Inverse folding.
């Protein structure tokens, strides 16, 4: 898991919204234009919360009365909106969006409104509120973002610093009678600050990430062992070095807590590696 890059200004987030708004047809455009001062004030309020590192302090939307018009800015795929999505993608480091930032398992096919569009329609096309992600994470997250105590329950990949500590761990397992290698992932608090840990714990828990990693591990490991075998057969460095290098690459692009990076490193270190490759 790694932080995503924010779009830089100019243009400002508000100007980007204005571009999308002005491409709308009447009467939607008129309604939005007539309410511009209130919308601009909300953009400013969000800026202030982000600046203070307290996005959860954004108050309830005062613009529910024009929710349909605000959400229409996202609901219909205008050229301007597609352009914004492209800019978000372009701002990211190479390969950073190869997998969904929320889970790291599948490709990005949609955008999550971190602040749910039902509750915050004014941020429906705010670049900071559009997180590229997979449809499964988007569906599971739905309209949730804080718990009853007002604490956020999902990592915000634009704003939250991902701790520089390894918290995702894995044990590799083989079951008698099965010829595949499986995995049991877990997260551990370790040296993390309590606040960081709570957010990470909720994020993994709510999105069911450990179960998803465990379920995907057999196939993923089989592919990794196959790649290592192919590489060695082609005269490459030994399997351990090959897997360690692959782990470093994944770590570099997706962060040290990326589930594939953790899996590759565990394989590279495992005493049974050569036996597993031979059995493959
Ligand atoms: Zn996902």
């Amino acid at each position: 898991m790694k932080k995503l890059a924010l779009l830089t200004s100019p243009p400002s987030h508000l100007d980007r919204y204005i571009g999308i708004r002005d491409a709308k047809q009447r009467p939607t455009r008129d309604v939005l234009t007539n309410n511009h001062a209130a919308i601009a004030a909300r953009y400013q309020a969000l800026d202030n919360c982000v600046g203070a590192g307290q996005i959860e302090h954004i108050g309830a939307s005062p613009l529910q009365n024009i929710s349909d018009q605000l959400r229409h800015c996202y609901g219909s795929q205008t050229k301007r909106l597609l352009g914004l999505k492209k800019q978000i993608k372009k701002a990211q480091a190479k390969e950073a969006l190869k997998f969904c930032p929320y889970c790291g398992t599948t490709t990005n096919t949609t955008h999550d409104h971190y602040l749910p569009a039902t509750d915050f329609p004014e941020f429906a096309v705010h670049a900071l509120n559009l997180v590229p992600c997979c449809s499964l994470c988007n569906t599971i997250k739905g309209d949730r973002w804080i718990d009853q105590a007002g604490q956020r329950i999902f990592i915000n990949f634009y704003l939250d610093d991902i701790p520089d500590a390894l918290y995702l761990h894995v044990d590799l397992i083989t079951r008698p009678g099965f010829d595949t290698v499986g995995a049991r992932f877990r997260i551990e608090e370790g040296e993390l600050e309590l606040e960081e840990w709570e957010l990470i714990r909720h994020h993994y828990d709510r999105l069911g990430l450990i179960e998803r990693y465990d379920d995907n591990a057999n196939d993923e490991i089989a592919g990794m062992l196959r790649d290592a075998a192919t590489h060695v057969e082609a005269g490459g460095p030994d399997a351990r070095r090959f897997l360690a290098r692959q782990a470093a690459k994944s770590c570099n692009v997706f962060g040290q807590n990326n589930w594939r990076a953790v899996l590759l490193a565990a394989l590279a270190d495992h005493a049974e590696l050569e036996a597993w490759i031979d059995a493959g």
User: Anything to note?
Assistant: The longest strand covers residues 168-174. Residues 168-279 form one domain. The two ends are 30 Å apart (CA to CA).
